[in-house]
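Notes from the 1:1 (GR / supervisor)

We went over the backlog. Supervisor wanted to see one worked example end to end before approving the batch request, so GR pasted a single chain during the call. The sequence is below; no edits were made to it. Supervisor asked that the structure be written out right there so they could see what the output format looks like.
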Amino acid sequence: MGKTSSVVGALCDDAAVLTDQVPLGEMNLGELPRRWQMLETLYRIVRDQLAGRDPEILHDRMIDEQQTAGRRAYMGAQRCLSTAWDNHAALVALLQHHGATQFAPWNLLRPTFEASFYALWLLDPDNSLERRQRGLRFEWLDELEHRTYYSDLAGIERFVEPQDSEALSADRRRQQEIREDHERTYRREADELGLAWPLPKSINVFDELGKLKHSHLIEGTDLILRSTWRTLSGMQHGRGSTLLRGADRAHEVPIEGGVHALLSINDDAFVGTATVVNGLHQQAILLFRDRSVPPK
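Structure output shown during the call:
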């Protein structure tokens, strides 16, 4: 898997911005390929176990799904695991066919980490009520995102032709009816689950990472997960300091206010971060299996 460098500088001229990527040899992924193969095998095993589970044996998922909001947690967790896997598969394909560029590999780790966290968070509590409460909260956040989407579109109405205004008004009324129907359902379920209304409008990922049971399996895991989250967030948002922590520098040329340099992905930094993400991902699929399949 080859890697390339990019030109980065405190001050960049057009020539630097448009510089072609420079090949810098092969990337050493260490144990990652073996860990990724384990993850793929794990997904295959869990799919088989889900398909062959005995519907007559009582287990967590059966108990949850017979009660208020019980299905929400598992639908949400399954959707998150699908998201995590899709981004993981894209990362592997990127490294195989495009190479280890400076930015994209990090930004495929980020959604894998976040989706794996949410899958774990939804099913982490041993108490059925708390799992179902989290499932409702997770779906409520989805509802709020949907509402915000339509609210943001309201400003486009001034561009609508007069002959289309009636159809727009009808669509607005339909969306309002759907919103009211959803709200009644969410409020009823919140009341049945003992949750105050309105439900929280966010989940603090940074705080909740330290509360997962997974975070307490080995001392210091919570710190590793939180620092990984900060690293991936910084990479996604183009933070210069984060970028430099995960990069090797070469061919530095002083300029006013800084330097121009060739930056390439640092093998050890990437492998270390990807290993943490892989561990969280594996724990998420294992927990989904443990909640969904009767123990033998």
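Supervisor's comment: Residues 209 and 222 are 6 Å apart (CA to CA).
Batch request approved.
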